[in-house]
Amino acid sequence: MSDLESIDLANPTEEHRMLREMIRRFVQDEVEPQALEFDREEKFNLDLFRKLGEYGLLGISVDEKYGGSGMDATAVAIVNEELSYSDPGFCLAYLAHAQLMVNNLAFNGSELQKSRILPKVCSGEWVGCMAMSEPGYGTDVLGMQTTAKLNSEGDWVINGRKMWITNGAIDEDGTPADICWLYARTGTDSKGRAEITTFLVENGMTGFSVGQKIYDKSGMRASNTAELVFDDCIVPAENVVGKPGESMIHMMRNLELERIGLAAMALGISRRSLAAMNQYASEREAFGSQIRDFGQIQRHIGESWAEYRAMRAYVYDTARNTDLSKSGNRLDTDGVKLFGTTIAKNIADRAIQVMGGYGYVGEYTVERLWRDAKLLEIGGGTLESHQKNITQDLGRNPEKINE
Ligand SMILES: Cc1cc2nc3c(=O)[nH]c(=O)nc-3n(C[C@H](O)[C@H](O)[C@H](O)COP(=O)(O)OP(=O)(O)OC[C@H]3O[C@@H](n4cnc5c(N)ncnc54)[C@H](O)[C@@H]3O)c2cc1C
């Protein structure tokens, strides 16, 4: 076999293949049995989350010397795909911790911050979140109104509210995340743009609390979403990441991994939905034949297969081309999330259609996947923001099209 023939984008090395097999077993034994219950009850499974730490998944992209597994963006995509095959809501909580908070610290924190905090978040002792969005500012992130000012003792005083924060609360009692990767405005540059600084806000710091846990979400109900309040919140100077006012670069770089992570979740949703509709089409008979003999059912299955395969190639090709220590892959990380998330929603929708009334009830899983898939078109950047970014990037670099 030539090298070209042996390339498997989704499992490029033996290590990746073993990782996938390990997670598949874990998902089958431990994730699948609880998924329906935690979705119905709108609860985050904290015990199961901590188990991900025992498997080395909470610090998947973190250097081993801090308790991580030292793996790459492809490994991140593998974990998210496999978890989302069964429980995208649980995977979203994992993503918020491992990709939005932990990975960001691993690549941007100081040695002191990394050696103190990373072992705790890699083991699962601490749960992390990332707070960027606000009640009045989402896509327009640079409009954020949460501010931080230095006081006379050299501490930072933070005021504002953050909205929609996954893992913002870790239980029903309003306990905040153990650590919050917080973006706040610390100034305005000469062009009038916000200067953004990152703060590591820890549970127990004065003025940091949960405003409300947000209930009755359409999907992703197995992850907690909360409003966070910073009311004269005091954060010591050693909890600032990088230089004040210079967080745009790591915000943008980490968003690239977030988009790959969310697209990989879409891939898991698509694969499960396709498997479910394919199996059902053989089992169900109508008018004296299997429903898979009907042309309209064949269209649902055929189109889903082709779209799933195209998405799989795009997700893993983009992951392979993403170096976690650098930014520079906005075009394709936007592209893959734009493409994959709507496809996942459509494939889950077709699965419901193929399965008729059964598809519409929770026990058959695909209605949950359909609800979960919708969030992927909003969180981590809306479809419209991806369209905007791609058009901007191709305007600046039209040669990309003919590369
Ligand atoms: C379940 C859930 C979990 C989340 N988790 C987190 C988290 O952990 N951390 C975090 O910081 N945030 C989180 N978010 C927030 C999420 O990232 C935002 O909801 C998202 O960025 C969109 O912001 P918005 O809701 O304020 O909508 P808006 O930005 O107000 O958008 C409203 C509409 O206007 C469109 N729009 C806005 N600007 C433009 C433009 N320039 N051109 C064209 N259309 C435009 C949007 O595309 C959208 O259709 C989460 C959200 C949800 C629902």
The CATH class name of the largest domain reads Mainly Alpha
Portion of residues within helices: 40-55%
Class by alpha and beta content: alpha+beta
CATH homologous superfamily heading of the largest domain: Butyryl-CoA Dehydrogenase, subunit A, domain 3
Overview of this protein structure:
With 403 residues, the protein is α+β, with helices and mostly antiparallel strands. The chain folds into three domains: 3-123, Acyl-CoA dehydrogenase/oxidase, N-terminal domain (Butyryl-Coa Dehydrogenase, subunit A, domain 1), CATH 1.10.540; 128-246, Butyryl-CoA Dehydrogenase, subunit A, domain 2, CATH 2.40.110.10; 249-402, Butyryl-CoA Dehydrogenase, subunit A, domain 3, CATH 1.20.140. It has eleven helices and ten strands. The protein has helices at residues 3-6, 14-41, 46-54, 73-86, 88-108, 111-123, 248-283, 295-320, 330-359, 366-375, 383-396; strands at residues 128-131, 147-150, 156-166, 179-188, 194-202, 208-213, 225-235, 240-241, 285-286, 289-290. The strands form three sheets. The chain has a four-stranded mixed β-sheet, covered by helices on one side. A hairpin with a 5-residue loop joins strand 4 and strand 5 (194-202). It is globular, with a radius of gyration of 21 Å. The mean pLDDT is 97. The structure holds flavin-adenine dinucleotide. Residues 96, 129-133, 138-140, 164-166, 217, 220, 225, 375, 378-382, 384-385, 388 line the site of flavin-adenine dinucleotide. Flavin-adenine dinucleotide (FAD) binds at residues 96, 129-133, 138-140, 164-166, 217, 220, 225, 375, 378-382, 384-385, 388.
